[in-house]
Amino acid sequence: MNETLQTIAQRKSCRSYRSEMIKDEELQAILKAGIQAPSAMNRQLCEIYAITNPSYIDELTEAIKKVSEERGEKKPDTYHFSYHAPILLIVSGPEYDSRRVEDGSCMLENIFLAATSLNIGSCWINQLRDTQDVDEVRNILNKMGIPHNHQVVGCASIGYVNQETPTKDKNENRIHIVK
Ligand SMILES: Cc1cc2nc3c(=O)[nH]c(=O)nc-3n(C[C@H](O)[C@H](O)[C@H](O)COP(=O)(O)O)c2cc1C
Questions:
Q1: Could you tell me if 25 and 17 are in contact, meaning their C-beta atoms sit under 8 angstroms apart?
Q2: Domain spans in the chain, listed from the N-terminal domain onward
């Protein structure tokens, strides 16, 4: 197997991070891999916001927890929506862009693979996408400079791995070769 295929095979979601910040060159490499993704008609409308200020991430956690509980989803006291990772990458795109989910998802997968190749843990974090239009969450997005007309496609938590998660088997019956 070549290095790229090995990286793809090794990628797994990390849910326990060390608090230290990853190196700037590692973050830059991951962000560049993100924007290297394909985009519909090469419009390149989705953007990545790398949130490195822990107080923004903690504010988001509190707001998301409150909104989720108002919706009847009880969260534990220890709840932290991005598992205390030092960096949250928010991928968003303009709401008028009908291909932002596809474009943003390609960016996120590139981010996960680049992180894996650098021995950095990562995980798709969904809760912000589901709560972004509630005022108290949107106010925090505004403060972080995410444009008013952007919709969050998904997020990636990024950081050095504290505790390894078990690798999940992938169901190969989903592959079909049609001759
Ligand atoms: C669209 C999408 C949303 C996800 N949302 C979350 C999430 O909010 N929190 C989380 O811990 N994992 C989330 N995941 C990660 C999945 O749980 C994970 O990919 C799956 O369990 C398979 O494990 P693996 O990534 O280690 O192969 C999400 C993955 C995808 C593709």
A1: no
A2: 15-163
- Classify residue 45 as left (phi > 0), alpha (psi -120 to 50) or beta: alpha
Task: Give the pLDDT confidence of 20-33 residue by residue, as tens digits.
Answer: 999 999 999 999 99
**Pocket residue to mutate for ligand 1, from 126, 158, 172, 174, most atoms within 8 A of Cβ:** 126
Say which amino acid occupies 106: C
Q: What is the mean pLDDT of residues 134-138?
A: 97
With beta carbons less than 8 A apart as the criterion, state whether 101 and 80 touch: no
Backbone angles phi, psi at 157, to 5 degrees: -85, 140
- What CATH fold (topology level) applies to the domain 15-163? NADH Oxidase (3.40.109)
Is any ligand 1 atom within 6 A of the Cβ of residue 101?
no
Please name the residues in contact with 50: beta carbons below 8 A apart, sequence gap of 6 or more.
27, 31, 87, 88, 89
127 lines ligand 1 (CB under 6 A): yes
Residue from 124, 131, 168 whose mutation best tests the ligand 1 pocket (most atoms within 8 A of CB): 124
